[in-house]
Design goal:
Elements: H1 5-8, E1 28-32, H2 36-42, H3 47-67, E2 72-79, H4 87-110, E3 114-118, H5 126-139, E4 146-153, H6 155-171, H7 182-186, E5 199-202, E6 221-224, H8 234-246
Parallel strand pairs: 1-2, 1-5, 2-4, 3-4, 5-6
Helix pairs in contact: 2-3, 3-4, 4-5
Length: about 260
Amino acid sequence: MRFNPITILRKKTANTHDMPPKEKLPRHIAFIMDGNGRWATKRGLPRSAGHAAGTEALREIIRTCSDIGIESMSIYAFSTENWGRSAEEVGALMKLISRYFVSEIDELNEKNVKITIMGELDPFPEEQKASLVNAMEITKANTGLKLNIALNYGGRAEIVRAARLLAQSCADGMLKPSEISGEKLSELMYTAGQPDVDLLIRTGGDERVSNFMLWQGWYAELIFEKTYWPDYSKATLIKNLNEYASRERRFGKVKK
């Protein structure tokens, strides 16, 4: 029988948690979508089924973030280290990437979502690479939610990439070393022009950032959810947003 994540995922409805006022919402939310494999194993399913179920949760969260006016949303979909997983799991993920962009691109485009892929695309098979480039091309003029999808991504690799570009600018005589600044480095990140990460949410129970958006998340508020990603819902997001809204952000300063 073909796996259908909708038949296994519990119904996801918002609970009694109210959405915080817009001025209390983060401008940029990042998600480490962890726990897909463990979710599947717990149910006696192959790990690939967990990744498929995770796309159902992702669909709801993207819609919610778009509807409530979040400016940027970043998701950790496939790290540089994930290539070390089994050939079967990597193959299933590659197929899922193609299916996802084929099935979702029209709705994302209609909702005015702009897609940016964070990471080097060359290692991907041609089919997947073409679908990723196509998604960015179709949505490049959109002005709504900026959806950053990290694929073959590592935070350190992103910083090294930006540093190399700055070094090349210096070598070409376009920039003096004394002119290098944090702003110049930010301009060379995949998320150039977007606000830094305000809120980083990781599901699955682990409490670490795992090399995700190290530069942009320098003062992000962190929330670690024990919930596996396929079970992450709009209700859980609203709960997390209320927790974020209740925190006092001082950015290293002392409150007067």
